[in-house]
Each structure stands twice: as structure tokens, then as C-alpha cells.
Design a protein that fits this description.
8-stranded parallel beta barrel; single chain; 230 residues; globular
């Protein structure tokens, strides 16, 4: 597929901001997308049909569209229904990412949703996974990409890539996109050298609130260490 070739071995940047974050909104995300486009990104991942529409128009890059939905219990799922995927494609999304976690809190049955998106909307489907079991199940149903979106680890300063999961996913006969916990260029290089199709980086580039929190944690760790020495 042309869109998959366009993102091969390149950097995809996730341009998203939650509703309670200062940078939330399609125009701000579009400015972010324009900036990363100028910086050399080969694709954009974004949340919501309005963001998809404006980012596609401004950058012309391949867009991975998602729609995050939160239920009354505060549980989140990514693009859990066909109607949401259709809205994203009509807005200009080139790829649709779907939450395929075996323990996802809600959503249409994956064995119906995934093939329907591919068949009726005619776009590739990315399976957002948390485990190798998720990836195997999605591959068995039929997807175009499997991604380690939910498979990150927690380190002292926050999220870190789940390289063990990536290694296992690379054994499957489906292109693998590395996503989740990437903060440093050398981590991106490591993933590409492992053989992933491309890498998605989000918070480290487009979420200053999270970037600041990470630096503050580092300062706190350093201060704690100085107190112990003293």
C-alpha cells in the first residue's frame, strides 16, 4: 500500500492534547503538525475528526486517525466503533488505529470491526496492542499494522519503550510500528535497527506539560540524592 510505503522507516509524530491540557484544540494541533512536518516527520497520528481534517489539509502527510472515547467509569478505548472510524476517514485519515486490547473496556467486537473498516472504508488498520496476545489475535483477524501503543513500561521518570514486546511482535508476519514511551533519538534508532516499520513519538515532542513533568521528576530525584549525600 502506498501509505505504508510513505511511512516506512520514518518518524511519525503523535499530535494530541487531552481536553484538560492547555494545547487542546485542532488549530493548535495543526500548528504542531506543521512544525513536525517541517522537521521531517513522515506522518501524523492525531485524535478526533476535526484534528484529522485540518492536519491533513495543512501538511498533506499520511494521517493515522484515532478517536479516544471515555465511558462513565473513566475507562478509555481507541476507535471502538465503525461509525467513529468512518468519520475519521471522511475527514481525511489514511490509516485507522483501533484499540485491540483483549481487556479493552468496551467496543464493537473486533472480529467484526477490523474487517469492516478495511472492507467498507478501504483504508489500512493499525492494531493498538498492549501485549503479544493482543497482536496475535489482531493478526489472526486481519490488520495491516500492529503497534506497541499500550505496551510501554514505567521507569523512574515515566514511560519507557517495551522493547521485549517489540521483539516478540516482530516474529509475526505483519509490519510493526513502535509506539509508546519513546523519549530519546537513540531509542528510535534501536527500534528501527530491530526491524520495526516505523516509530511513533508523541509526548516527547508535542506535549510540553508531560515534558515539564519529566524534567521536574528528574530534579526531584537529583534533590533527593543530594539530601542523602548531605
Amino acid at each position: 500500500m502506498d501509505v505504508l510505503r510513505a511511512i516506512h522507516q520514518g518518524l511519525i509524530v503523535s499530535c494530541q492534547a487531552l481536553e484538560d491540557e492547555p494545547l487542546h484544540g485542532p488549530m493548535i494541533m495543526a500548528a504542531m503538525a506543521r512544525a513536525v512536518h517541517l522537521g521531517g516527520a513522515v506522518g501524523i497520528r492525531t485524535n478526533g475528526k476535526y484534528e484529522v481534517e485540518v492536519i491533513k489539509k495543512i501538511t498533506g502527510l499520511p494521517v493515522i486517525g484515532i478517536q479516544k472515547v471515555t465511558n462513565e467509569a473513566g475507562e478509555m478505548a481507541i476507535t471502538p466503533a465503525f461509525a467513529l472510524a468512518r468519520d475519521l476517514v471522511e475527514a481525511g485519515a489514511d490509516i485507522i488505529a483501533v484499540d485491540v486490547r483483549q481487556n479493552r473496556p468496551f467496543g464493537e467486537p473486533l472480529e467484526e470491526l477490523l474487517p469492516r473498516i478495511r472492507r467498507e472504508l478501504g483504508v489500512p488498520v493499525m492494531a493498538d496492542c498492549a501485549s503479544i496476545e493482543d497482536a496475535r489475535a489482531a493478526a489472526a483477524i486481519g490488520v495491516d499494522i500492529i503497534a506497541s501503543t499500550f505496551g510501554f513500561k514505567e521507569g523512574p521518570l515515566g514511560s519507557e519503550p517495551g522493547f521485549d514486546l517489540l521483539e516478540a511482535m516482530l516474529q509475526l508476519d505483519v509490519p510493526v510500528v513502535a509506539e509508546g514511551g519513546f523519549w530519546y533519538p537513540e531509542q528510535v534508532v534501536q527500534a528501527l535497527e530491530m526491524g520495526v516499520w516505523s516509530v511513533v513519538v508523541g509526548s516527547a515532542i508535542t506535549r510540553p506539560l508531560e515534558i515539564t513533568k519529566r524534567f521536574v521528576k528528574a530534579c526531584c530525584h537529583a534533590a533527593a540524592g543530594q539530601k542523602k549525600i548531605g
